[in-house]
């Protein structure tokens, strides 16, 4: 039995305090996203937004957040992780305050963009701060708690969002973030220690511009393809920009002395397959709450609060699985946990796929959602630990930025793909009624058509989850993880 020295005990106490701070940040961002998923119909009705504007209320955040994650991972490596992390809290809190004051849907989308920038500064650094704080042998425990807090946000978010939308008004969906953001900023400033900065090096301006342009063009094309079709000029231009930008990125990053995206770090099979598996898991799981909430509002005609309650099995599953898996991490390899979690997620989505129907008992839906949630909690803990322990300390920021960026790309595609499959089944003239949650009051025939869309959406997500399990299996470690420099 290894003796625990006073230094080890002190480091572990600090690590758990860091875990509490970073978990609070994840809860803040998670609540901000999950409340809006359920309350979207209330916002749409308030602004009388069309289908395109309705989609952009969600997608604007995801697009900007995804495209800027790698940039802020690199900036934090150079300028200080603590400083960038806390600045993200300040910006996110301010944007939330202004979002609640939005006079128009355009202004609201602009504030969502500012929220996205602040969230990118937080997300690109939270996992790295935890990785730096915990001893390697305890990292899976800290990561399990950190990932598990996402379930707290998802647990509270839909219920709180539905309740707020029906009582206090949609503005408070954003304003509830303000006191939480101020608390996180104050606690973070008091607890987080300054981390050593890397030597000052020139910022890869060209690389940043090219990466941002490529990601923005791709995600814009994907989102527009769902609402306007693949022949839309926006889609064609977006794909063309992406195709041109990718080889330019490869050339520019190979020539740069300080690349924002060091391609050498992503050439190994473990990292490539683990990130692709993470992409598939994000794509398969992330639209579940949105799709199920729309199902209960558009197909069954329930209110936002009841719809929020209906999706609780997903975050409950994540919340139960993540800390348990974190404790098992000292006995079970992250590799095995990743595979098991991916298969469990596929099982939950398969249950929803084969039982989809307007009259399906809720307990059947609940089981599918719970199993999918348990799978996601297991996969996220194992996958994140596997990736973060396989890297040298100097590359943690940019690689974690890429890891979260890959997941966000999956989320964007998931939202756009799921909504496209759903609304395609009822025709363009009724899509606005789906987003507003009023379809069930207009046409029982259209509700039946919509159920076909739900079944197809679950089928697509199930297939993607299975692909993620295969990729997780291919990410087998070939050697012992690289040791990280302690600080």
UniProtKB/TrEMBL annotation:
- Indicate yes or no for the key word NADP: no
- Residue intervals of the Major facilitator superfamily (MFS) profile domain: 18-480
Which domain of life does the protein's organism represent?
A: Bacteria
Coiled coil in keyword set: no
Keyword annotations from UniProtKB, A to Z: Membrane, Transmembrane, Transmembrane helix
State where the protein is found: Cell membrane
Q: Which InterPro entries match?
A: MFS, MFS_dom, MFS_trans_sf
Q: Where are the transmembrane segments?
A: 14-34, 54-72, 84-101, 107-131, 143-164, 170-191, 203-222, 234-252, 273-296, 308-328, 335-356, 362-381, 402-422, 457-475
Where this protein primarily resides, as one coarse class? membrane
- Which SUPFAM superfamilies does the entry link to? MFS general substrate transporter (SSF103473)
Q: According to its record, how does it sit in the membrane? A: Multi-pass membrane protein
Q: Do you know which PANTHER family this protein is assigned to?
A: CONSERVED TWO-DOMAIN MEMBRANE PROTEIN-RELATED, MAJOR FACILITATOR SUPERFAMILY MULTIDRUG TRANSPORTER MFSC
- Give the protein's recorded name: MFS transporter
Biological source species: Nonomuraea salmonea
